[in-house]
Amino acid sequence: MKRADVLKYVKKKYNTEPEYLWEDYPDVAVLRHINGRKWYGIIMNPLKTRLGIEEEGRIDVIDLKCDPIWVNELKEREGAYPAYHMNKTHWITITLDGKFPDEDLKDLIEHSYQLTK
């Protein structure tokens, strides 16, 4: 899934509108619960090198809260990395470049949504 696909998906499934909280980072979108306002995801575009990808440029990613047992397993998969900018024990970063399967990403979004309810 690409960034736009994720935003359409969370709008339809959870009625989530992305929030752009930082003027200095206009591409960072926070995904929150309508009630309670807890974050269940954050979409960012860090430098690829920040994730250990040896390429120039930036990449869209989503950070999602995740069961720590799953975090260790997921980090072994293509398109999944230790959390960028969040707690690496309880969050996972997934690239939004199509390398991580869409249905698995939707499952992780649901998992994060439920964990942060």
TL;DR?
By secondary structure, this protein is α+β, with helices and mostly antiparallel strands. The chain contains 3 helices and 5 strands, in the order H-E-E-E-H-E-E-H.
Description:
With 117 residues, the protein is α+β, with helices and mostly antiparallel strands. Helix content is 28%, strand content 20%. The protein is built from three helices and five strands, in the order αβββαββα. A five-stranded antiparallel beta sheet has the order 1-2-3-5-4. A hairpin with a 6-residue loop joins strand 1 and strand 2 (39-44). The chain is globular and about 40 Å long. 29% of the residues are buried.
What portion of residues belong to β-strands? Answer: 15-25%
Any low-confidence stretches, pLDDT <50, length ≥5? Answer: none
User: What Rg is obtained from the alpha carbons, in whole angstroms?
Assistant: 13 Å
**N- to C-terminal separation?**
24 Å
Adjacency order of strands in the biggest sheet: 1-2-3-5-4
Structural class: alpha+beta
Helix content: 25-40%
Strand element count: 5
Number of helices: 3
Element order: H for helix, E for strand: HEEEHEEH
Q: Report the major sheet.
A: 5 strands, antiparallel
Principal-axes shape call: globular
Give the mean pLDDT. 95
